[in-house]
Amino acid sequence: MVKVGIIGGAGYTAGELLRLLINHPQVEIVFVHSSSNAGNHVCDVHGGLWGETELRFSAEYDLAAVDVLFMCSAHGQSRKFWEENPQPATLKVIDLAQDYRDEHDGYVYGLPELQREKITQATKVANPGCFATCIQLALLPMMGKTEQANVTAITGATGAGQKPTATTHFAWRNDNISVYKAFTHQHLIEIGRNTGMQVDFVPMRGDFSRGIFAAVTMPFDGTAEEAHALYSAYYQDAAFTHVSEREVNLKEVVNTNKCILHTEVHEGKLLVTSVIDNLLKGASGQAIQNMNLLFGLDEKTGLQLKALAF
Predict the structure, then answer these.
(1) What is residue 259's predicted lDDT score, i.e. its pLDDT?
(2) 170: number of CA atoms within 13 Å, CB side?
(3) Strands 269-276, 212-219: pairing kind
(4) What pTM value is reported for the model?
């Protein structure tokens, strides 16, 4: 059994981790750390876990007692944590913040479709950002074939985290769409570093809870059949990324660890549509996928999730 600890256990990503790890056949959850909720039942915060666990949040953590630590705190907090805590030599770490996505301090960037073999040999993994995951999966087969891409993508409210803000409360978000951080979104850094492309990215806030829908366009000198073949060949061995011959819809991936891609060609331009669940393939599901790779488990273990019917 893989013994697991979670730091920053009260947020959305930790809640999704717990939902999956409680039912993972090879996992024992040793502690879920949250100073502000210490002593409270986990299900008092993550209400969807009522009846499934008696776990309580803890103010204490014993890093020597676990095999892998999931870091779910806010961006910037992971570095502070390791400044204050020695890391046991045998401990593996999966960081869901952006602190180590540049792969410094021995971290490996955890996008399995990009560097699966490196992840299997790693001890520390930096989980990709949600937009970065969705967009890079649309770009990877075109690496070395184009230097430029344009992206418009819309994300659900959970992408902004659990703490309410002026742009996440229901009255503002419902029946509304807005642009934010146009051409400056922080995930552009990791996208550019990994793909070598110049990406013009316009992110949007959507009036739904979870999911990302990205439309990516690039120059392409080929046919629609060639584009589909290119993407199908690239992802033929991918555990969760699939290429569809028909147009894709966001609901086909919500509540799953899938990315579904669709390609079209129009007058020298390739359109790739990419859809993921931002909390799963864009965060916690991918983190568990990486954990499975770290410990030599089947990549899909604990991630056999079904999309919602309606």
Answers:
(1) 98
(2) 0
(3) antiparallel
(4) 0.95
Match 């907090």 to its residue by tokens: 77
Q: How far apart are CA 279 and CA 158, in angstroms?
A: 8
Residue 195 CA to residue 140 CA, distance in Å, equals 7
Angle, CA 45 vertex, CA 178 and CA 73 arms, to 5°: 65
Q: Identify the active-site residue in 43, 72, 130, 259.
A: 130
CB 219 within 8 A of CB 270: yes
The per-residue pLDDT for 35 is 86
Task: Report phi then psi at 300, rounded to 5.
Answer: -90, 0
Which positions ≥6 away from 165 have C-beta within 8 Å?
none
pLDDT of residue 170: 72
What pLDDT shows up at residue 172?
67
Q: Where are the beta strands (DSSP E) in the chain?
A: 2-7, 27-33, 57-58, 68-71, 92-95, 108-109, 124-126, 148-155, 178-179, 198-205, 212-219, 241-244, 259-266, 269-276
Q: Which stretches of the chain drop beneath a pLDDT of 70?
A: 159-169, 171-172, 309-310
Among candidates 280, 297, 239, 283, which has minimal Cα distance to 27? 297
Pairing, β 68-71 against β 92-95: parallel
- Residue 118 amino acid letter: K
Predicted pLDDT of residue 39: 87
The answer to whether 134 is a known catalytic residue is no
- Grouping H, G, I as helix, E, B as strand and the rest as coil, residue 16 is helix
d(CA 74, CA 83): 15
Q: How far is CA 109 from CA 126, 193, 204, 225, 236, in A?
A: 5, 11, 25, 32, 21
In this structure, is the dihedral angle defined by the CA atoms of residues 133, 137, 142 and 144, taken in order, positive or negative?
positive
